[in-house]
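Subject: complex prediction, re-run

Hi both,

The earlier run crashed halfway through, so I resubmitted it with identical inputs.
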Amino acid sequence: MAAEELRILTRHLGAPGVTGLPGYEAVGGYRSLRRALGMTPEAITAEVKASGLRGRGGAAFPTATKWGFLPQDVFPRYLCVNADESEPGCFKDRVLLEELPHQLLEGTLIAAVALQASHAFLYVRGEYRAPRELLDRCVAEAYRAGYAGQGVAGSRFGCELVVHGGAGAYICGEETALLDSLEGLRGQPRLKPPFPAVRGLYGQPTVVNNVETLSNLPYIIEHGGAAYAALGTEASPGTRLFCVSGHVERPGTFEVPMGHTTFRDLIALAGGVRTGHVLKAMQPGGGSMQVLGPEHLDLALDFKAVADAGSSLGAGALVVMDETTCMVDVSMRLVDFYHHESCGKCVPCREGTYFESRLMHRLEAGLASADELLTLADICEHMEGRCFCPLGDTATWFVMSAYRRFADEFRAHCGAGCCPVRAAAEAAA
Amino acid sequence: MSAAPSPPPELVTLTVDGRAVSVPAGTLVWDACEKAGVFVPVYCAHKKMDPVAVCRMCLIEVGTMPKLQPACATVVQAGMEVRTATDRVQRFRQGNMEFLLLNHPLDCPVCDRGGECDLQDFAQRYGPPRSRTAITGKVHFDKARPLSDRIMLDQERCILCWRCVRYCDEITGDRAIVLQERAVHTVVDTFEGRPLTGPFQGNLPEVCPVGALTHTAYRFRSRPWDLQRTPSVCPGCSYGCTVGIDSRDNAVVRFVSQDNPDVDDSWLCDRGRYGFPELNRQDRVLTAELSLEGPVRAVGALEAVGAAARALAGVLERHDPDQVACLGTPQMTNEEAFCLQWLGRDVIGTPHLDHQLEPWPDLAPDEFRLAIRELEDCDTVVVLGERPEAATPVLTLRLYKAERKRGRQVLRIAADADPTELAGRVRDRGRVGVVAHEADRDRARAVATALAAANGSVHRLTLTEGMNGRGCKDLGLLPGLGPGYRRLDRAGMHGRAILAAAAEGRLRALVVVGPNPEMEQDPAYEAAIARVPLVVALTPVRGLLSRHAQALLPGRTMAEKQGTVTSSEGRVQRIRVALQPRIGAPPPELRLLVELGRSLGGTWESAPLATPAFDVICDAVPAYRGTRGGLRAAWPGTGGAA
Ligand SMILES: Cc1cc2nc3c(=O)[nH]c(=O)nc-3n(C[C@H](O)[C@H](O)[C@H](O)COP(=O)(O)O)c2cc1C
Ligand code: SF4
Ligand code: SF4
Ligand code: FES
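This time it finished cleanly. Structure:
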């Protein structure tokens, strides 16, 4: 099958003036919201359930199921839109924020109707300044047009929209850290239970959903859950945005139907591995996920297939690495990222990422001994599954999977006095 | 007042390392392990704080759960299988200790906590045999950073257990300590770097599991194995907080808190905790001194007692006993107070005896009915003015707990607020507690009456001045009220009237036990004492009394004697000898008082020692009978012992 995009979520991308309200209404925007306002909350949730939509924030949790966890009759309830997108290699929420902001607001309001939420808070990554300013303008437009505030679109339902800028911490994308950050506290994950659905923002029942998750709702309400589900496969319904970056000819964001598309297709959409080079490794899901190799090229973009291969689709990214890449170097950079972003709450992550980072720098410089490789494995063993939140786990996944797959390359660094991969590349040049 | 009976909690049975244990539903695995006799190491968990599960030290295996679970934050379930000693758990503990030590300065030799540090202890017990950390280098932070004049912070030694932060959040509510920065650069510090100002700072080093927070007053003073610990009661006020008195070379070097959930809940206030230098005072009365005839002469204590008795007998031969008075102090033990009222009332025959300045002719035990712990069970606690919390500071923490953890209403009102307007401010009808200082007891009574009309169940807690002001009252060191608040026919003068009579030259003799800080601060005191021809004084420290007494008897500080004291809520607790008297030191005060009475012809029924004297008290005041072991006296009609 030829590599092809299937534009559902991005169907209006590039339409004239679509980032403004009139342009968005011109392509049928906010019709789904009006329709949703005529439905019962249960009916909306039932459509979402039929669509099989799973969270696009990384954990792939079924969206309708998550909504169903809200306790009956406890009000007010809140919806939080997770636009903290900070995963290395991920930039798909940014596309939706910058190109289709009203689609996100419409999806947000549909979810608010389904959840009977009185407020929706849009938590935007601190560094996303331009998208936040655009969102501010769009929210103002939505208020002026009566889509937000008291009496949404002439109905009796009211929902306030609040845009909040983060302060630049990866951990604030974790949903409970996001809630603390929104409340003005240090952005650090909360102890669970209670889960946000029961006691979330300001102690009230709260749902946190990703930008892409919510942006799917207008389509689902317009065309029905079944139509959406039919786009992918049964296990991985719908389409999904993938950010392809690294050693490809045309990095970018591509929308493809899940399950029917392979990694090879995705790389082809991005123009293939850069000319004259061959694929060495790829990392799906963003910086957190385990490395895959050329033998996985024909794997379908399917939750289960990728999980079986020992990795995950995570937040929808694909970092492509060719034969010039030093896997120790990449591991070091990713470890440094987690070391920098660890919130410092729990011991194994706070100290473990520091330990990892120190070791990786020695290893990449060719200064580490073979024993230190064993130490590295030990550190990761004591971190994975022992940290307070998944950040600490994921700080071990790439480096450990790279170590397993490229053990010789790791070992070659020990005592080499320099990075052997770089030395070889320099010698060849 | 007793708490509304709550239904017995449902029991859940689980196994810990194969041992079955039953605990109430809702218990944390950590507590269940403790009940099963299995030790689980913790750093962040604290019995008085909500779990945060940040240190990960307590991770254990639970059933078939794939991940290790934090014992400190996991709630028990029926049939749960907890395993704490598996290879996986032990390997992880070793790994986690390695993490904890990675950026720790390892400066145990100069750390005040050396020898009583959970980091040292668990490193020994669970840590890796060898260090692999030489390769990493350490992240450095501030050492010896004063957070106030009382507390030092060493940020390098901090393991970021969050206890100090949660203490300021959950226990005092002042949020004075916060976390700064993130990742491995995270540190604790005061909010905006402002110095700590709260009255409960001394608890911080105690909640800190390592040597990061230390007492300025204990800096470089000792190692724990050089200390002797004596369980006792804090002499700082009448709240009755339990303390350990740590002494070295026969001097007190610190007070440590002991957890009595009924009283202190494991906290001390700084006034009490850091008041210990008073017990090391050098300006002591170490021998008896007589100046009955001619210049001052140092003599043996018992010889001085004999001389004092002869002088008193001489006065009584020539004058009516009415012209003699006895003044005690709320710092006396129950045994001493009871003995002094025996000496004054029964032996000398004077009705003029007191332990404080102000008169309380109509005092009744029900003014003390509410127990400290029961404050948490009151729907509303009304606090009259600032004096209760000023007098007994740890009360503030109990009130905050009632508010924060139990959701109760704490209504702080001006002491002179109009009681009739109060009923509308009480949130729900229900159990109401009224807390007042003894100086405001008339107002408290008016408030209680007004609220009882609107609310039904109202009980009072009256806070007395001085460590044992309550005991002095219970045991009749009051004019007109005998032991057990027995109303007497003969009225007598209260403290202030005694001083006035003395100043007017109407008193021939005065028996005084000191020190009495309240009286000594009164400008009339010295002039009054100076005018009495015969002053027999018993006091441990030099001062006003030692200057004006004709017969000066050496007393002991509370760290040098034993006996019982009664707290404001009526809890009778033991104090014990923490500093051993020197060889040849004079006998304890109780003995001197008994001998004085006997020399004057009185009959004291028991040996002149604290324990038999307490039996004498129990015979005279039946409410004290069931108090052994630190229980509350059970006054007729005021609810049972608790
Ligand atoms: C360390 C960490 C970072 C995360 N960052 C993000 C993020 O940037 N954006 C996001 O949508 N979800 C992020 N998540 C996932 C959220 O916790 C949460 O699962 C998600 O927002 C739920 O939305 P969804 O159900 O729509 O996927 C992160 C999770 C972790 C553990
Ligand atoms: S694993 Fe621990 S330190 Fe790391 S981000 Fe999560 S809570 Fe913070
Ligand atoms: S200073 Fe002590 S109590 Fe506070 S976080 Fe550090 S180790 Fe814990
Ligand atoms: S004691 Fe359980 S995580 Fe710290």
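The domain at 110-122+134-280 of chain B is CATH 3.30.70.20 (Alpha-Beta Plaits).

- K.
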